[in-house]
Structure formats: C-alpha cells, structure tokens
Amino acid sequence: MKTKISWKKLYSLWAKEYDSWPSVRGVIDKKGILKLIGKIKRKEVLDLGCGTGKWSTILAKKGANVTAVDNSKEMLNVLKKKIKLENLKINTLKKDISKLKLNKKFDIIIMGLVMDNIKNLNGIFKVVRNHLKKEGIFLMSDPVYFSGIKKPMTKEITILENKYRITLYIHPEQEIKDLAKKYNLDVLKINKLKVDKSVKHIFDKKPHKSFSDYKGRHVLTIYKFKIK
Predict the structure, then answer these.
(1) Segment 196-221, tens digit of pLDDT
(2) Residues 154, 168: Cα–Cα separation, whole Å
(3) CA-CA-CA-CA torsion for 47, 49, 53, 57, nearest 10 degrees?
(4) How many independent structural domains does the chain possess?
(5) Alpha-carbon span 35 to 30, nearest angstrom
C-alpha cells in the first residue's frame, strides 16, 4: 500500500532531485509568466513557495532584489547552494507563506505552481494584500487538472515512482475572482495556457504519455492582479 504524505514531507524527499524532474507545466509556466512580468531590474520581488528557486534565480539574474520564502528546509538548502555557486543576491526565509508577516512591501509578488499544494487560499491573498505596493503586481500560476470546474475539488495522485500518495487541491476560477474581490485586488489578466510544441521534448521522454494526446490541452492558468 502506498504511503500518504503531506506536501512538506514530499518536498523533503524530493528536494535533491526536484530540478531534474521533467515538467510540462514548469516550461509553460516560465514562458507564460515572463510575458506578463514586465521590467524587473532593481524591483523588489517576493517569491512565495520558492522551492529550489526557479523564479528566484531567474529574476535575480535579471537584476531584481528577491526575497524567497518556502516552508521546506530541504528545498531552501538546494536554493542556497545555487546562490553560493552563482554568486546571487537572494534573501531566503523559511516560513509558512500563508502566514507571512514582513515589515516590507514589494513591487512584484509571484507564486508559481503552488496553488495545488494549498487547501485554503485565503491566507495567501491576505499576505499578498499586506505586502504588495500600491502600483505592484501579483502573478500566480495554477496547474489545471480539470477545466471549467465550478467548486473546489481534491484529487489524490501517486508520485515519486508511485511510492507515495499526495492530495492536490483544485481551485475554480470563480474562487480566485471572489478572493481577489475580498482583498481589493483587480484581476488584470487570466491567461489559459495549453500544451504546445515547446514541451514536445518532455513527452518524448515519457513513453507512457503521447504529445499528440495532450496537444492543445489547457494545463495552466496564470492570473495577474494589482491593488484597486
């Protein structure tokens, strides 16, 4: 019987191999967010659920002042090695991103591919509202498993060579709009991204999945917000 584990436990087990894991949504997420983020040189950026630092390292190399926050010591340790190896200026914090309290506001807050780890997003939106500058933007990407759902759902999957079970939290678009309204945020964009030829090479490494079966499928939604 497969062992059911928490997301925090999963990342403690996965951290050292995480960056080598082929991810269709990861590639699409990177392309989609970079189109929306705008100029970032010398901007103050908060990376919520930074993990091993995909976004933190990309944005730091582009000249942003990055604060990277995650609740996984193991994932942050991987990021710290990158910071040292590449001589990057990134401030790392081990904290619960849903309860974050910093004496600072940011030009850009980003949360990439984390929504399905979190059952209740209310805390995230509160954190964003309390830490976003008046003219700042919040970018959040949501892995899509079922298009057009009307209410929150959960989905249990197996992971890490089918050794473990983990629960995904699936959030409908209306839930996000309602939270934005509650915390006085304008929804500037909702970009629904699909599988295209830019990720075909990943499917080529997964013989049990066919690119032709997934081509054109909606797999990621990116939201862009600002304070009203």
Answers:
(1) 999 998 888 876 688 888 899 999 99
(2) 5
(3) -10
(4) 1
(5) 9
For residues 150 and 167, give the distance between their C-alpha atoms in angstroms, rounded to a whole number: 19
pTM, full prediction: 0.95
Q: How far apart are CA 19 and CA 127, in angstroms?
A: 27
Domain that holds residue 70: 3-227
CA gyration radius, the chain: 17
Q: Is 112 helix (H, G, I), strand (E, B) or coil?
A: strand
pLDDT band at 21 (very low <50, low <70, confident <90, very high): confident
Question: With 80 as the cut, is the pLDDT of residue 152 above it?
Answer: yes
Pick the closest to residue 170 from 150, 191, 193, 140 (CA basis). Answer: 150
**Which tokens is 140 given?**
């959040």
- Counting beta carbons within 10 angstroms of the beta carbon of residue 164, is it exposed (0 to 12), middle (13 to 18) or buried (19 or more)? middle
Find the CATH number of the domain harbouring 23: 3.40.50.150
